[in-house]
Amino acid sequence: MTDAPVLEMRHIRKTFPGVVALDDVDFELRRGEVHILLGENGAGKSTLMKILSGAYQKSAGQIIFDDAEVEIKNPKHAQTLGISTIYQEFNLIPHLSVGENIFLGREPARMPGLIDQRAIFQAATRALNDLGLTLDPRRLVKELRVAEQQMVEVAKALSLDARILIMDEPTAALTEHEIGELFTTIRKLKEKGVSIVYISHRMEELFEIGDRVTVLRDGRTVGTYDVRGMSKSELIRLMVNRELTELFPKERVTRGAEVLRVEGLSTKDGLKDISFSLHKGEVLGISGLLGAGRTELARAIFGLDKITSGTIYINGERRRINSPRAAINSGIGFLTEDRKSQGLVLPLSVKENLCLPSVDKFSSWGVMDSGKEERAADGYVKELRIKTPNLNQKVVFLSGGNQQKVVLSKWLCCEAEVFIFDEPTRGVDVGAKTEIYQLMNRLTAAGVAIIMISSEMLEVLGMSDRVLVMRAGSIACEFNDGEATQERILQCALGE
Amino acid sequence: MRSRGIILRGNFLSHYGRQLGTLSGLLGLVVVLWALTPHFLTVSNLLNVAEQATIIAIVAVGMTFVIITAGIDLSVGSVLAFAGVVMASLLHAGLPLPLALAAGLGTGLLCGVVNGLLITVGRLPPFIATLGMMSVARGSALMFTEGRPISGFPESFRSLATGDVMGIPVPVVIMLVVYAIAHFVLRRTKLGRYTYAIGGNEEAALLSGINVKLYKTMVYGLAGMLSGLAAILLTARLNSAQPIAGMNYELDAIAATVIGGTSLLGGEGTVVGTLIGALIMAVLRNGLNLLGVSSFIQQVVIGSVIIAAVLIDMWLKRRGK
After folding, report:
1. For A140, which DSSP code?
2. Buried-state track A199-230, b at ≥16 Cβ within 10 A, e below 16
3. How confident is the model at residue B3 (pLDDT cuts 50, 70, 90)?
4. Do B190 and A304 lie within an 8 Å CB cutoff?
5. Average pLDDT of B27-34?
6. Would you give the distance in Å from CA A132 to the centre of its chain?
7. Is the CB of B206 less than 8 angstroms away from the CB of A324?
């Protein structure tokens, strides 16, 4: 790694109608470094990277690449310069093979219009081997794991002679093991002299993979620092400009009566003989690797997957839960991992979304009582401080944090006693995370019981009263308060 | 109450802003035709236009519901023909009028429910299920009548088309009632709310405890039943039930719905828009006839209007963002 910068962005300013998104931002990237871009949601990380990748045009400032000033006109232009981006949502075509994806749009041809398949696969194998990967270039992308798809993206960028690689939340959908593999690849890229801009909300990763870090706050640069010598709390302070004495503001609530008991639950979707109980005011953390059956467990309890054997008791009473309706009627609410695709009906309003599972409360003989509905919705909007101009605003126009609150209100409105949170803070910035944790505290204080499925180890440790670790569709370990540590959970999840 | 005022304003703009645009399109069209031909803006001609619009307009109500759920119903025209001949033959067989009418509606409903079950239980794409039903219903109508129309009905039945209420033709009155009810259902009832929710995000609807299969089946059933109603009015007007009736009505109904601002992607749309859409098509046909434009050119014009309406709508939406 040399200290000479490959890229400098100086005094970058970007305005949108009515908003200054970036104001005098400086960013410098050295050859072969992993440069972390850190900041809360809305701090301007994405905007800055969109300018670098040509998706946005800067309003003012200079970009100096290889000692020459450049105007990056569009994403294609950025690619020709050697700047590639790997977005959270991959730009791969599922029904094409790995090789065809890598060379999409620039297929080697023997005659015009006639693709040379063999050349594609040979070149793809070379590109993959280069990264130390042993992926068969003939496999279809849709058959690959998320992590493997990501590697295809990396190989594609590299075959485009990328010298700068922007990775936006690359580990969001990966398991611990896959993250390790990704980091190995990143180190290989560094050796080749590729510079990496790495955007992530996960603090632990930053210390593991990062060389330098630039912190953005409210569209301005706070500073650029060497990762070595920084502490987590110092970085958080720089990001939010307030001391977060505790990342996890967990408040203990005296455990109440049992609300949910699951006995010997099995499903066709891979759950095997699951038993556990849940008490009022308790947060039960569920940990485990991706594919261990955590989401499947939530789906089964919520009546989405067919239960083949086992029983569910609510408040000591045996319930047959065979549909989401039955689960809702039993007092269960499910906050899915993906708000946009599963939690909300985006073209509908705040009010309509909020009242969707409890429409029966607001209607008689199928006719809605709009007054009653509006009063209820208004109550939750005020209570949870949902920022919306009015109740009829379409939820698609709300920010991520406010959308999350609408989903939460949905289940509050149904008077759910058991809340299942699936990855409650994935893709959410530090400030909003704390707010979600505080909402959890308020729920437990009100006697609600929470099942929290999470891949973030610290979150599980910080917020749970008890922790269940799943492995291969079964519960592998249970840790009571204070017994769980990162190592013990991981050992159990891996089955060591 | 101040907050209520804010609520209503948000409501009005988000729900009817789009319709104001379509409505001004309709009014613009009326003004142009009025300038071009004096015969256009007469009471008798306008009533004529309204009557011409009724059949497609009623079928288009069902289509709007279906399209809001992000579905499509290609069978409405064939179902109309089948329901018409079933009802007509029962009338000829001497069944009392109310029972025959109920049979007409029931036949439509049944076809629609079968569509719904094929889509929800059979998990067929709506396009395929209703494409199949389109052929099955048409074939059934032809088999049932051996390809011949059934004609000549009692005056009591025909008055459904020939009668009037305070000068307004009965079919127009029925159409307006259907629209009023449909508007109420979409805006104010559980069925309406669920229709939008299913089209807007079927998975979120399912996870909110909505019985998606039941409500989707109901929506297709409704579309079928409205085809049955349209069959009754068409048979009464023509004094004849024809197995080849309703050809291409599905396309006209889709066009009216789309011109009216309902998105084929589902989750949004209004019947008010659809009514305006159906009227635009009827006014256009009528005006072009009055101007003596050949029916060949008419098809070109109508097709262009559909494309232009959707292009403008998409353009406005993109600008709105």
Report:
1. B
2. bbbebebbeebbbbbbbbbebbbbeebebeeb
3. very low
4. no
5. 89
6. 27
7. yes
| Residue B208: closest C-alpha in chain A | A357
DSSP at B97: H
CA nearest neighbour of A202 among A179, A184, A230, A223: A179
Pairwise pLDDT comparison (B302 vs B72), residue with the higher score: B72
Query: Nearest CA of chain A to the CA of B49: how many Å?
Result: 34
Q: Which H or E element spans position A19?
A: strand A19-30
B203 CB-contact burial (10 Å; exposed 0-12 / middle 13-18 / buried 19+)? middle
* Six token digits for residue A451: 């099942």
Write down the pLDDT at residue A262.
93
Q: Which residues pair with B297 in a beta bridge?
A: none
Residue B6: the pLDDT is: 38
- Measure CA B244 to chain center: 18
How many Cα atoms sit within 13 Å of B168 on the Cβ side? Answer: 11
For residues A78 and A54, the answer to whether their CB atoms sit within 8 Å is yes
Q: Evaluate whether ipTM surpasses 0.95.
A: no
Number of H helices and number of E strands within chain A?
A: 16, 24
Length of chain A: 496
Best CA proximity match to A136, nearest among A87, A102, A108: A102
Determine the Cα–Cα distance for residues B253 and B259; give it in Å rounded to an integer. Answer: 10
Q: Give the nearest chain A residue to B206 (CA atoms).
A: A324
Give the pLDDT of residue A168.
87
B200: chain A residues, CB-CB within 8 Å: 345-348
Q: Which residues of B touch A367 (CB under 8 A)?
A: 188-190
Strand, helix or coil at B266? coil
Using pLDDT thresholds of 50, 70 and 90, give the confidence band for residue B140. very high
For the record, the structure tokens of A125 come out as: 């194998």
Which residues of chain B are within 8 Å of residue A341 when distances are taken between CB atoms? 201, 203-204
Mean pLDDT by 10 residues, chain A (496 residues): 80 80 91 89 82 91 91 89 85 88 82 82 87 86 86 87 89 81 89 90 83 89 90 79 62 86 91 93 89 89 92 92 93 87 89 90 88 90 85 84 86 91 78 82 91 86 90 90 80 76
Q: Which two tokens stand for residue A239?
A: 């990001």
- For helices B212-238 and B43-68, the axis angle rounded to 10 degrees is 160
- Chain A, chain B: beta-carbon pairs less than 8 Å apart: 96
With a cut of 60, say whether residue B5 has pLDDT above it: no
Chain A residues in contact with B194 (beta carbon < 8 A): 359
Report chain A residues touching chain B, CB-CB < 8 A: 302, 304, 323-325, 327-329, 334, 336, 341-349, 352, 356-357, 359-360, 363, 366-368, 370, 374, 378, 389-394, 410
Residue from B67, B207, B264, B319 to probe the interface with A (highest A Cβ count within 10 Å): B207
Element containing residue B132 per DSSP (H, E):
helix B126-145
CA distance B146 to chain A (A): 43
Length of chain B as a residue count:
321
**Residue appearing with tokens 């101007």:** B291
Element (H, E) at A81: helix A75-81
Residue A350 · residue A393 · CB < 8 Å = yes
Q: What digits encode the pLDDT tens for the residues B164-200?
A: 999 899 999 999 999 999 999 999 999 999 999 999 9
- Stretch among A105-114, A367-376, B65-74, B305-314 having the lowest mean pLDDT: A105-114
- Do residues B66 and B73 lie in contact, with contact meaning Cβ atoms separated by under 8 Å? yes
User: Which chain B residues are Cβ-neighbours of A354 within 8 angstroms?
Assistant: none
Selection from B61-75, B251-265, B281-295 with the highest mean pLDDT: B61-75
